[in-house]
Structure formats: C-alpha cells, structure tokens
Write a structure and sequence with these properties.
Layout lengths: L2 H28 L1 H5 L33 H6 L2 H22 L7 H29 L5 H24 L9 H23 L4
Helix pairs in contact: 4-5, 4-7, 5-6, 6-7
C-alpha cells in the first residue's frame, strides 16, 4: 500500500473508531449489569433491624422469560428497523462526499451509499406512515406530524442528492447537498427519538 493510499484510509479509520467508541459508551450507559457490579458507595455495614420490626418479606421469584415469535418480530415495527439503514448510509455517504474533495477515491463509494440511502428512505417513509396510527392520540401528535414532514423532506433531499452526485458537472455544489442531507437526517432522527423515547 502506497503512502497516498494509506493517507486516504485515515479518515475512514477515524470515522470507524469514533463509531465504535460511541457504541461502546452507549452500551456501558445502558447496561444494568455494569451498574450492578459497581462496589457500594459506603463500606459501613447496614444497621440491623430493631427487635420489634417484622422481618422483610422474601423476594418474589423472577417472571419467566417472554416468548417472542421471531417471524412476527421481523415485520412488526418495520419503520424502526429500516430507518437505521437510511440514517447510517445517508450520513456515511454525505461524509464521504465531503471527504471526496480532498480524497477523490471516496467519490464512488459516496455515490453508491447515497443511492442506497435514497431508496431505503422511501421504504422508511412508507413503513412510518403504516405505523402512524399506533402513535396518534397519545399526546405526541405535534411531534409525530413534525417527524412525518421532515421524514418526507429528508427522503426527497436524499433522492435529489443521489441524482445530483451522478452529474460530474455539478461537483462544485456537491458539498452543499451533503450538508443539507446531514442536517435533515440529524433533525429527523432527533424527532423520531422523541417519539420512540419521549422525555417525561
């Protein structure tokens, strides 16, 4: 591998390293087992109950594990599954498109990622509309409408970007489309996160 090729791989390695570190951090924050293994904050022994207090009731047995139909799980909540491809591929394609100004070898990969992201974005829109009834009337209607509108705008922007990046004469403005895609994907994903995990 030449020195030029090695330098071209550096941004990809940095993006991959950042993604792995983010995933590890998120996993550590959400892993209750990691929380349970921490030593207690105080080393002093717990006080013994007073003689006139009744002993604590024994803990109830843990409930049996849920039985899940995997075939039904594959198609239920399809929007929540498909949308991650759109976000990941669209953001990676937009970032590589920006990097292709410095490293032109990233251009073909960026175009391919953006085309696939554009296709998956319309699947995400359709599946999201199919799940819309599940969230209506629950107090999140305003956020649902915003997410739906921005989702359609994002799918449109991804589709337009996928077409524009195939036109070599439009290369001077490719960066603008990449910035718009990154912004719309971030905002739409943020609104979707509010719907999936509403802050209470």
């Amino acid at each position: 591998m030449s020195a030029i090729e090695a330098r071209g791989m550096l941004p990809i390695g940095l993006v991959a390293l950042f993604g792995l570190a983010s995933a590890a951090y998120a996993s550590a924050q959400q892993n209750p087992a990691a929380q349970a293994t921490r030593p207690p904050a105080s080393t002093s022994a717990a006080p013994s109950p007073a003689p006139d207090e009744a002993p604590a009731a024994p803990e109830e047995a843990a409930p049996p594990p849920l039985q899940i139909d995997t075939k039904a799980a594959l198609v239920s909540g399809l929007h929540n599954k498909v949308v991650h491809f759109t976000i990941a591929l669209g953001m990676a394609g937009a970032i590589l498109l920006l990097l292709s100004y410095r490293w032109p070898q990233f251009g073909p990969g960026a175009r391919l990622l953006l085309v696939v992201a554009a296709l998956s974005s319309w699947v995400a829109v359709r599946s999201g509309l199919a799940q819309e009834a599940d969230l209506e009337g629950g107090g999140l209607d305003l956020w649902l409408e915003r997410h739906e509108n921005f989702g359609k705008w994002t799918a449109g922007a991804l589709t337009l970007t996928a077409v524009v990046v195939l036109v070599k004469r439009a290369r001077p403005v490719h960066w603008l489309f990449a910035i718009v895609v990154l912004g719309l994907l971030s905002l739409t994903g943020f609104l979707g996160g509010i719907l999936a995990h509403p802050p209470l």
